[in-house]
Amino acid sequence: MTLGALTLSTAACGAEVAENPEATDGKAVTVTNCGRKVTYDKIPERVVTNDVGITEIMFALGLTDRMAGFAMPDDKGDLDSVPWKDGYSKTKWLSKKKLNKEMVLDARADLVFAGWNYGFNESEGFTPAGLKKMGIDSYLLSESCRNGKEGSRGKARGVMPPLTALYTDLRNLGKVFGVEDRAEKLIAQFRKQIADAQALVPKDRDKPTVFLYDDGRDKPLTSGRFAGPHSIITKAGGDHVMKDLDDTWTTVGWETVVERDPEVIVINDYGDVGAEQKEKFLKSYAPLKNVSAIKHDRIYTLDYADLVESPRNPAAIVSLAKYLRNL
Length: 327
Fold this sequence. Notes:
Layout: H1 4-10, E1 29-33, E2 36-40, E3 47-50, H2 52-60, E4 67-71, H3 85-90, E5 93-95, H4 101-106, E6 111-116, E7 119-120, H5 128-133, E8 137-140, H6 162-176, H7 180-199, E9 209-213, E10 221-223, H8 228-235, E11 239-240, E12 249-251, H9 254-260, E13 264-269, H10 275-284, H11 292-295, E14 299-303, H12 304-307, H13 313-325
Helix pairs in contact: 6-7, 7-13, 8-13
């Protein structure tokens, strides 16, 4: 089961926001982004984003008219059923690959909203520092903030709980774009949505243990405690079996999965290898045959955009909470 149909009803609050930002006095704005103070001299007018969650944060804040375009693969699910369908129809799809300098320059961007490994990458020379030299500002997705010293390669990511990262970005961008009231309204709606879901979580039983399976055959790619699935699982009433990993998206060994014996596996649905193929692999992979989730056929699917930092996270909590409640 995917979340496409549920997302529209449970997250539609984000679609009610008006398009045009409120007037500001034109003063420079400073926010803390990934541990650094960053100053924006004016409200950005031509923003380019990378990937679906980042793009939908802009749409949810009602900033479609500030968008110059977005880049993302076309394997991120059905975009016609989301509350921000109009945003996609009004914004130019620049590329089905990752952003690069040429795309940003062609779009005449004055700000790039992306993240480490969500667009920015030193190995390809596409970094906030490089853009700054060209007079283009950047904002880093908080989920992608590096644990280590900025500029170092190969460091783990994540510096705050996933929902805190989402709320931090909404507040920061609300300030940068002069739409602080909209940001606070969204956060209040999301908090209520999550609280309502949590109120229905059974209190008289142990929390079911949950493993997030993103992809991978030799080693599974999964979520540590700083990626969206951690908050989604725990707020939905589950016990995240990889909560001790101080990282966002990372690989582990299958032996670790077997040892922790999750009662539920959540599949991240995206890419060339879809949820059906991933489920077939999990059920046929011999080392997992005695894992509780496999033995009892407790496998649940969520879309990629539900699981990365995005305004779809609260709806994903609602959806998973319903599933776990009925086990």
